[in-house]
Each structure stands twice: as structure tokens, then as C-alpha cells.
Amino acid sequence: YSQAIPYFSEVLRRQPQVLKARLYRGLCYVGLDKKGEARADFETAKQSEPILLQYMYPKLSLVLYLESARL
Q: What is the DSSP letter of 1?
């Protein structure tokens, strides 16, 4: 995960509208237990594509919830 984040960040620096890069970077942050950064990416993605993400966001929220429940 940590190796992928810089690549997604570079894509977003050049083309901030690339939704997949933001979502995948958010998932990488979840994998690294960086829930604040993950949530920020998911929220930004939700704001930029609300119609598409109305179906995906509940699943992304569930990912964050399940990760926070880990012991």
C-alpha cells in the first residue's frame, strides 16, 4: 500500500478529477490504518461524483467501519 500511494498522489496532482485514483488511494490508506486520510479521499470523491458514489459510498463507509472494529 505504501508504495502505491505516491503513484496515486502523482496522478491526482496532475489530474485531480481522476476518481479511481482517489478511491484506490483511499483504500491504500485503509490498508495502512490511516483512516483520516482514507475518509478525506472518500469524501472528496463523493463530492466530485455524487451520483456515481451514492452506490459506492455505503460500501466505502463499511470498509472504514470494519477496519476500525479490528482488534
A: -
Select from 1, 41, 12 the least CA-distant residue to 64.
41
As to burial, measured by CB atoms within 10 angstroms (0-12 exposed, 13-18 middle, 19+ buried), residue 45 is: buried
pTM check: above 0.85: no
State the number of CA atoms in the 13 A half-sphere of 61 facing the CB.
8
Q: How far apart are CA 50 and CA 21, in angstroms?
A: 16
Nearest to 8 by CA among 17, 22, 16: 22
- CB count within 10 Å of CB 24 equals 18
Return per-residue pLDDT of the chain as tens, 71 residues. Answer: 999 999 999 999 999 988 889 988 988 998 898 988 988 888 888 787 766 666 666 666 666 666 666 54
